[in-house]
What does this fold into?
Amino acid sequence: MLKYIGKRLVIALIVLIGITIIDFTIMTLAGSPLEMIQSARVSKEALEVKEAALGLDDPVALQYLRWLAEIGKGNLGISIKSQQPVAKMLGSYLGPTLLLMGTSLLFSLIIAVPAGIYSAIHQNTKRDYVVVSTSFLGSSIPAFFLGLILIYLFSIKTGWLPSSGMRTLGMEKSTVDLVKHLIMPVLVLGTSIAGSTIRYIRSAMLEILKQDYIRTAKAKGIGRFLVIYKHGFRNALLSVVTVVGMQIPLLFGGAIIVEQIFSWPGLGLMTMSAILNRDYPVIMGVCLLTAVVVLLSNIITDLVYALVDPTIQLDKATVENL
Amino acid sequence: MNEINSPILAVSGLKKYYNNSSIRAVDDVSFTINQGETLGLVGESGCGKSTIAKLIVQLEKPSEGKILFHNQDLSTLNKEDKHKNKTKIQMIFQDPYSSLNPRKTIGDAIKDPMLYHQICEKEEVHKEILRLLDLVGLPANSMDRYPKDFSGGQRQRIGIARALSLKPELLICDEPVSALDVSIQAQILNLLKTIQKELSLSMLFIGHGLSVVHYISDRIAVMYQGKIVEEADSIALFTNPGHDYTKTLISSIPILDPTLRNIRKA
Amino acid sequence: MEQTSFIRRFSRHKLGTLSFFILCIISFAAIFAPVLAPFDPNEIVGGFGKAPTSEFLLGTDQVGRDVLSRLLYGTRISLMVGFLATIISSAVGIFLGLLAGYFGGPLDMVIMRFTDMVMSFPYILLVLVAAAIFQPGLWTMILILGFVDWPQMARLVRGNVLSIREKNYVKASKVAGMSHAYILFSEILPNTVAPILIYGTSVVAISMLDEAALSFLGMGIKPPQASLGNMLNGAQSLSILTSKPWLWLPPGLMILLLVMSVNFIGDALRDAFDPNQS
It folds into this structure.
């Protein structure tokens, strides 16, 4: 087991270095970040001095190695735009994003797990079709369009919910205020992933229902409800674990758009402005952070999988059929 | 049976290990097949007999040992000679349902390899396929149909036609009838027997029951846990079994087969 | 015979069939936009932000262009991005998946690690970075989406190849000494068409959503060229959102309709290909 985790971590590290190389190359292709602060007031000479000071005139490979060496020391660099340490920026924006992502994931699971199971139990009935069709609606509606509709309905028409930000300015910090700000972003982000989750849970549940032990249990006369929830539970848990693992990269991506619509002060908003300003250290920091989270969640998914279902071999020794 | 002929296939010291030698599928096996002879290879499932088939047709690489075809080690040939020799050993598979591409007509499945190896001219290929289909007892209109239209036995006939299309010298039959109904088994066995005689093919016939293997083979090798434990003339094996496992195999044959019953009584 | 039963199974999926016809109609309208559109989409033809009238069926936008004409041209862009990006990403994914699955070994290892790399990247982030770097525009957008969206396809194809590789008909081809190219493209690929098509529909849907999102964020198709996403961009301002719904509702609904149709068609294909459904 430990050997397996070690092996996975080594592979993840290699993948991670690969990702950062790709990122770095793509970004340097874009041109100098200093073009963005160039203006009539800043002389060309001053820019060149600054360029040299930042090491931007060195070859890309050297720049990358320097960046990597700093990462090794735990230093993510300093933002070109705001002059703040990237680590500190990530730290302060990460919280709101995790809050948004976590709540959205929870919200989508609360809807999708029961809906998926319900749909599977009533396979090929009207109720099943309604659930599946609704799930397609959920995954087809563009996040920003849903966001606009919600703002139109709940902020403009009724004034029930604030349309942007995380807290009302000038108000004391309160949970109620935070929750009010959180509702619409979570609805949008949650909906976009609930659709595919419903269908995944449904098909996983259908597989489980087909299995022999469920049939046996039914034949033994255990109540339908008990059969599904007791015997199928462990297996259903597996599909939930898988789905959570699959959704994490999507959540990150979705958060960027949702934060933009609702001006949610998270990583997404910060990333967008960093991209527009070609603020490399910040973009690299975000890429590194998200890649680490995604890779770790992949590994954790597999481990949880193995814990929930001990029959899964971690290191599959493929014995060809003799 | 003709011992004077040089062997068409000579296998010596063949070994195939999996998982760092923890599984010894084939463990030091040697045998020869003479020109025009059918060697039967019998043993329980998992004893390594199918692995031997895969090793001979080079679907897998041996861990150790040599396979000589016409006194030539096929694995050491250069690319061009390898390509030339590829058609000379063909195989018939156990499961007729997965041995035909569901998205290909029977005609195409037979035609493509023939044209690829330039076995016959493009203009002749249609006629040749019809001849092959007729040889294995299938109607001419099978050509434009898909595998799903055929039964297991018919599919096995198609498999035989496809193998024969490349004009092989050695035919490896890996349990070709064990997936079929008993009534069909006899038809396919007879077909193989006739074709073997007519084309004077050499054959390695693999099976898990002695009665089937005995019916078609000149000589029989008995395999047990990766090794050949006994090898004898087809009739001698029954009259004078040497190994305990062979005796078990013989006693497990239902005494419906009159020839075997007589042998066993004797 | 095989085809008729396929159509029969497809048409049993009512929403899928309906979606198919809707998509046909929309595609027709989009293809013939130059003929059907009442005005030049980029020309100022009326007052600023006027409500729908008999002349401007969907009103005019902030600078006085006809919304209906822009909607038609925008739909054209969406469909183009959706299908072309899918073709590119499918080609890349199928190619890499076939190689990885068929040859296995170190090649498989390298391809799959590379796939992991691209996959463990929040995909919209990659697109945003790429869009910020290269000149935004229609073809950049198609290429970016095409080269980002292939990993799932590669995995899907690889998985299929791994199972088909073990089929006897592939082994028979190997024993017959057929070339790798023949085995890959004539034996294996035709048997992975169904999953490729089904997954392909969802890539079309995702690509259209991404185009819209990027253009909405101002990182995609730039005005004056119309796209469904950038038509919605204006609705970020409160006055448009509150008082000029004809500016943002039609493009939003159009994206929804397009994406949903494609998704339902994918679902119907899944049913039609499923051998368990008689």
Chain A touches chain C through 50 residues (CB under 8 Å). Residues 86-121 of chain A form the longest helix (36 residues). The two ends of chain A are 28 Å apart (CA to CA). Chain A is about 75% helix and 0% strand.
